Amino acid sequence: MDKLDVGEFRLLMEESQDLQVDAMRSMKQPLDAIVDLGKERRAKRAHARLRRVEVDHGRRRLLAGIGAAGALGVTGAWALPMSSAAAAEDADIMALQTAVSIEKLAIFTYKTALTLPYLQTDKVAIKTVAAFAKMTMAQHTEHAAAFNARAKELGGAEQTATSPKYTPIVQEMLPALKKGGPLDVIALAITLEDVATSTYVQNIQDVGDPQVRLLFGTVVGVESQHLAILYAVQALLKGDAPELVTLKATGDAVNAAKLPAAAGSVGIPETFKKTDLASPPEEGAVK
Amino acid sequence: MSPDTSGEMQISEAQLRAMTADMVEMHHATFPRMYAALTDVGASLRRQLRPRRVPNLGAADPARRRLLFTGSGLVAGSLLLAACGDDDEASQPAATPGGTGTGQTPAASEMSDADASMLKLNASLENLAVFAYGAALEAAPKGQFGKTFPDAVAEFAKHAMEQHADHATAFNAALTGAGQQAYTDPDPALADTVKSMFAKLDSVTGLATLALTLENTAGATYVKQMGELASPEALSAVATIAPVERQHAAILTYVLGDYPIPDTFVKFGETKTSLGARPSSDIA
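Output (structure tokens, whole complex):
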């Protein structure tokens, strides 16, 4: 990746690091509040009653996931009788752990992609794609850390593994990826970003803890942007317009007048984010 | 509008069109699903809580959906007229929040007041975005943003405006599904400022920056609400809509030449391109 460490890219990364520090700083207060709020709420009996109501009204999907996992004998203590409130909280933890497993697979994928020879050239489009991969990998790292922090705060274990469902698929694709080109990397990244976005959108509707919902929300707003840019870059590369894959930091600002009309809409194909690819909460839970 | 005819475009429009041929289909696939879910959940809640109550037949009526669309168009139209009119006309509120566009029916009590207020705020932000994009598409051919208006920017404005109109309809469906009235006015706390800013725009860059500010503001508002809303239909709405507003912002940032995903987490406070998460008091 030496060729990416040129002046302008360093500037981009420095700016990005600043932005990330700012973002993490801005997240610290909410995360601290999450910790305090969680302790306070769990200490109150009213909390358990509230959680039972939530379970009755909106938790069928998550609890069904727990039931399925318990029936398969993979959740150990979860198979034992538990209160609805405890089950609900465990469901939130599982959702967070599954999210971490998706983030970690994304990190692995981008990290692997950045070692591929065809992402090492000085062409502006390649520099831009590589810069995107590097930035996105860093953002996914922060997301995984935030999800793990919340899971641990709720009493769960830290997830250190990649998604059990998608990891074999990615590994199977690696040989073809090495022989392929940037479009192959982008296609794989689109799938992973869509899985992440879809999962978090669904989780926002299912998890019981408002602070966990908020955390998923602050992350999904970023994953969805990864997805949009990947769609746009994919279209431009497929349309043989690599010169339009450029930023101020990697070459020059894109000339909007040269962009084809369809570039204005190709990145945002869904009016409402669908969740067909959403991973169920137990999929990547710590066993 | 003067399409770019420089001949320098090296990408095949047909190629891109082919690649995105399913976009309209996806839109038509997601909108009815979302709309039905919102109205159905609202109706389901009403049945559970008030089994003897007469259902709100209008909420699930396709004709009502058309009416809501028309409402959004009227909002855009009235604001556009105000924005393009003389100073005296522009100084008058284009719409009257709290008038025809707001209010609570006597029987509506299933959804908390807080949730209803947030949904109304969201509808108002969508209405404001519809106005902004609609006004831009009207003003571009008159040369307000320069001699030429990039095709991609025009396409984006049209696409985003349609999506925002659908978002407004969805938020209003959640409201009417819970027995509340739809909110068809733009955010009254922001409308005059946006109109004033819009009138001063003279470049595509300026227009994109204003649009980016509206997108980031809406995104921040909806994400912040995810930790506050209680009703399932309201949560479904913000969960599925907020990512789309964020995508609008990413594309706009790319067009402006900057790194399109600068934040690792959605920020709620004010930034250079966001007014920050808006409070429900905007529409009080």
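Chain A is about 65% helix and 0% strand.
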